[in-house]
Amino acid sequence: MNDERTTKTISGMDSVDTTVLGADEIILNMGPQHPSTHGVLRVKLKLDGERVAGSECIIGYLHRGVEKIAEHRSYQQFAPYVDRMDYVAAVSNGLGYCEAVEKLLGTEAPPRARVVRTILTELQRIASHLLWLGTHALDIGALTPVFYCFREREEILKIFEKYCGARLTTHAFRIGGLQYETYDGFEEDTKRFCNDFAHKIDEYETLLTENRIWVGRTKGVGILNAADAIALGVTGPVLRASGVKWDLRKAQPYAAYDQYEFDIPTRETGDTYDRYVVRMEEMRQSRRICLQAVENIPTGPIMARIGKVLKPPPGEVYHSIEAPKGELGYYIVSDGTTQPYRVRVRPPSFINLQAFDKMAKGSLIADVVAIIGTIDIVLGEVDR
Amino acid sequence: MGHLIPPSIMPYVLPVLYAVVIVAVLPLLAGYIVLMERKVMADMQARLGPMRVGPHGLLQPIADAVKLLLKEDIIPDKADRLMFWFAPLVSVTMALLAYSALAIGPAFQIADLNIGLLFILAVSSLGIYGIVLGGWASNSHYSLLGALRSAAQLVSYETAAGLGLISVLLLAGSLSMKDIVQAQSDQGVWFGFSVPFGFFIYLVGSIAETNRAPCDLPEAESELVAGYMTEYSGFRWSLYFLAEYANMIIVAGIATTLFLGGWLRPGARYHEHIPGTGIEWLDALPALLTLGVALYSLKLAPQQPVKIQKIVMGLVAVLCLGIAGILAGALFAPAGVMQGIHGAFWFMAKVFAYIYAFLWIRFTFPRYRFDQLMRLGWRFLIPLALVNVIGVGVAIVLRQQFAWGPIVSLIPTTLATLGVAMLLAKDDAPVSEAQTADGE
Amino acid sequence: MQTLNQALFIFFAVLAVASAILMVTRRNIVHGAVFLITTLLSTAGIFLLLEAEFLFIVQVILYVGGIMVLFVFVIMLVNLDVSMRQVQFNRQWFVAGALALVLAAQFLFAIWAGRGALRLPAMADEISPKNTEAVADALFSHYMLPFEIASILLLVAMIGAVVMAKRRVG
Amino acid sequence: MRCSWVNVDPAMPSQYIPILIYALLAAAFPAVTLIVFKFIRPDMKPNGAKLEPYECGVPPEGNARGRYSVRFYMVAILFVIFDVETIFLFPWAIKYGQLGVYGLVTMLVFLGILLIGYVWLYRKGALDWV
User: Fold this and answer.
1) In whole angstroms, what is the distance from residue A367 CA to residue B368 CA?
2) Which residue of chain A is at minimal alpha-carbon distance from D67?
3) What parts of chain D have a pLDDT lower than 70?
4) How far is C26 from chain B (nearest CA, A)?
5) CATH fit for domain C1-85, picks 3.30.300.30, 3.40.50.300, 1.20.120.1200, 3.10.105.10
6) What is the pLDDT of residues B159-193, one digit of tens each?
7) Is A48 helix (H, G, I), strand (E, B) or coil?
8) Closest CA to B134 of A374, D16, D64
9) Which of residues 336-365 of B touch A (CB under 8 A)?
10) What subunits make at least 3 CB pairs under 8 angstroms with B?
């Protein structure tokens, strides 16, 4: 196992030299095969007793060369691949990719498509946050919320299934708009879900928000201040919990977000509890957006007029969206052929994971689990 | 039959018989507590739980046992083979041995020791070696960290729980399990009501001592994979598991005996008779309850999907009917027999209620962090327990001096302890770095 | 019954001595600790044979359940591999052996010289079955002062332990 | 039958005899099952990575033994002290009914002295894990 050579290291700003150990220090490997590293992340911990003296994230156990694959596929052919990066938020991935290619082509999806995309993406955000909440709570030892979260997530997946036939890796959108018209009852389903969901989210909060143990486990754990967060390029709820009001849906609106009212929740401390609160509030806001959007879906075509064979003009484009986990950017270079010359993905989990060492230093082993959970990583996206 | 056994051995026949029964039944009971746990968990989490093996998963424990017995037996290369073999045995033996002084009803007890309670505490505290040695023998980081955590946690909460029990001993004046129950019968109140804080301290202490969530840090799966059991598999692993569940029954048994009136029937002062008979309503309750369960299973039986499951469900109904019959029959038996059988019923009912509380807590709360757990033990429970002991002591003296009623004298104590508890809880906030540095 | 008790006494005694010897000869310090536990438990068994129930339980709770846990912790804190590789008997073993022999001779002489005193008075026929209460009676009547002094001793131990450990941590 | 050289009559309280038998049973049950099933279960010879200690799928670094936090030692030593204290409380507790005010005062002095130590520990931060 010579993974030192084959895997990349993305330790934080000051990486640990694990060869030099103090008298009371041990090296503990957490992962790649560990119940709470959310996949195949390997965290090498230098422990002083139970305190983390240094850490190193070793990644690459799920590397599939997604970016390289793009160079040998046509633009349309590559779209399903992006679903498999952040596989718990496939719809968001697809949205980012489709919009990036559309930008490259100099076209735009029709209004109806944009609204439907917004609804589905916000539902996906709720689903992704629900999965995060369940697993994060499970990591911290609360066994029950995960089942409640999955119960609600199931409703969202049912909507996806009814819409495009797939539940997880949906490939819901096409470059230029949508392939499928919404099914009969789409609006009702979404509305029903959103109305029920309001109570459900209160239900989760009764289990956790004011629970003494939960607060004890999350407050003051894994603090990341705003300056560090910006320096490390952290985005999404993790950034907003540190007090930076930055959300691409407001900052550079895409899809149909400019039409809806919603708030960007922020917190001050930037600890695990704050990130929890921010995500909970984000679910409420997503619900709000969905309700607004579904009330008033414009009629009209769902597909822009683009040819069957896509040949974007030579050039490059960077387009990013606010995925559930943070800024998801696609940088695409076209050489005028049917296949992209280069695709580079800026995955939020990968960048956010950089902050791990900063957050974990000086905390306890148990906190490491909470911190991995709170960053909300998906290894499919980190490793690509 | 009587003349076959020499009279000198006669007094030992029944206790040894119980011993055999306990060793035979306990693993099965532990298996069914696991099933109960899974079913309760499923119910709280909006799902069904095991449904496949037997009707409603009723045969699941047996299937699990067979699987575990036949599983591959792995001893890691670097492990200390002798200790690896020895450690789970220590855990199980000590967990089983603790039953010897437990009084399951007035009739079922292996030995009524003068030091009964201390014997149980001492023996179950030895189970710690099974954990520490097992974790050490595995030669794995996770195992050893889990073992050390476990040991630190066990010893901390042993102190707290022990101090919690003292308050009951002040009232009972004996260490014998039978005498403690008798004292509750004589004083007409379960000690859990007289010293609620003693009960509370013991409840928390017993959760931590049995490594149950939210105090299951030694085997916190999200951090230490499986703690001291990481390297164990198959039957050895199931021995640890058995020990854990046996310990759960033990602490539930101690709590039942000391705080919940042991085998005493609830409503001891209620003596309404069923018209026309000499049987009290509450005495008839156990038989009626089991009869209800029997009828319910009989109703479920035809609804089972497969023929074999129908049969098994029918057998369950027959079993419950049999138990109901015994419980009903006991009503007409001599007083000793009746108390023995019904005492065992009430004792088990209370033990299961206590275990249910354990499960309920497990599925509701997140897990403590290790330092938080230690702080809870050392900075909250232990001082609270000391205050509680002193308070109960003062209350008893007041009662003796001023002839106050048993409850009246304990109310001010309980309120004072509550005050101290709130004060301590307030101070329970995490210590800042500056304070720690100051203390150095 | 007497034969049984006799047999049990011999069993516990042999077990105690044998595991004590094994304890000092084991190279693996954890095995040594396990044998020490066995010795202590056998001693507890002998207490039980002497009808000293409370003492029996104190032996189990304090020595086996308390002090040995401390020992095991200390063992786990030191690096075992180093001590395993160290030579178990160093070069002064013959000096130590000679000293041990002299000590043994002294003990034997003392026992032989004072053998008359070993004839303890016969035990009362009726021993109070409530052993714990007997201990309490003694503790709170004749031995009140030592009992209170014990708490001071515990206080000193507490402070000493913390001061030493804190220095180690700091 | 008496021991010849010391005038002591060993006599285990009779309640302990069933416990002794039970102890043998309790120890024999897991051991016997373990040995019996060794012959019943299919004979598999685990090898290779199966015999490695688990460290999340990578070879562990360094020996697992040794080098653990000294705080475990602190907990253990404090435990021993409190354990001794608790043991003193047990005979006191069961005799308390007869001792009355005298017993209360005795124990208040005893616990008082220890409480001073406890408060000292509390303020010194020795009771904190980290």
Assistant:
1) 11
2) A24
3) 1-13, 55-57, 59-70, 129-130
4) 13
5) 1.20.120.1200
6) 888 888 888 888 888 888 888 888 888 887 888 88
7) strand
8) D64
9) 362-365
10) A, C, D
